[in-house]
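Listing S7. Sequence submitted for prediction.
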Amino acid sequence: MTSLRLAVTALCFSTLLACGDGTMTPVDAGPSGNVSAGMTLYAARSCNGCHGNVGEGNATGPNITGSTTAGIGAWTQAEFTKAVKQAIGRDNMAFCATMTPYPTLTDQQLADLFAFLKAQKNDTVQRGQACP
C-alpha cells in the first residue's frame, strides 16, 4: 500500500511540474510589476503631491516606500490594491478624505506602481496630516 501511495504522489507531482515551470506561485501573485512604468504612473497621477517624490512621505501623506519599518514594505499586492482602489488600509479603516481612490487602475498598473514603491527605501517615518 505504501508503494501505491508513493506512486500516486510521484504522478501528481510530475503532472504539476509538467503543467508549469516547477515553481510555486504565491496566492497573492498577480502580474509582475515594471518599476519604470510605475514611476511614470506615480508622476502622472500626482502621487508625489501627497507622498513625496518617491513615496517618502511629507506633511500631507505618509511614507509609502518599500521600507518595512516606515512604509509599505510588508504589504501584499492585494493590500496595496485595496488601498489604492478603495482608500482602505490594511486594518480595513478608511484613509483620510485627502486620499483619492483610483478604482479604474488596471491590475498591471497597480503591479507597476507597487513595484516602483517597493523599490524605494526610506526609513523616515512620515505619517502625513491627521484626519479631521
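Caption to Listing S7: primary sequence and predicted C-alpha cells for the chain studied. The CA atoms of residues 32 and 57 lie 25 Å apart. The first helix runs from residue 2 to 19.
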